[in-house]
Every structure is written in C-alpha cells, then in structure tokens.
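TL;DR need structure tokens for one chain.
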Amino acid sequence: MTEPGLPELGFAGPVAESFAPFAEQGLVPGRVVVGHTRLLRVRTEEGEALAEIAGSLRHRDRGPEGRPAVGDWVALRPS
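>> reply
TL;DR here they are.
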C-alpha cells in the first residue's frame, strides 16, 4: 500500500498557497502524524521524518496546546 502524499492529506488550494512565504525561505511542508513533547513524526513529500520542535517554540511553550499536534501543518528545515 502506498503512503498518501501531501495532496491526499489536504495540502492543496489555500493551504498550499499560504505556505508560499515559508517555501521562499527554503522550508518544506509537512503534516504531523504523531506528536511527542520534543519530537514529531511528520509526513512530507519524501515520506515520514522525525522533526524536533524548534528551540524558540519550546521556550515559548505553554503546554500541549502551544505545540504542533497531530493533523497540524508545519514548516520544516530540510536536513
């Protein structure tokens, strides 16, 4: 069975258009499929990847509601 790509996960239309400023910065889109306190499993066009929540976001952390959650779109810096 083939894993769904970003369009099948909803990365189209307004969602894709709103990502343009991040793409200009060299970031890539991803959708959170599993979330933990510091790490996320994210679906990208290349497949699934582990991503660490940025330090600036962790320092502003106000609990689980302030972190990316399953289903959220995130901007990733490619490794």
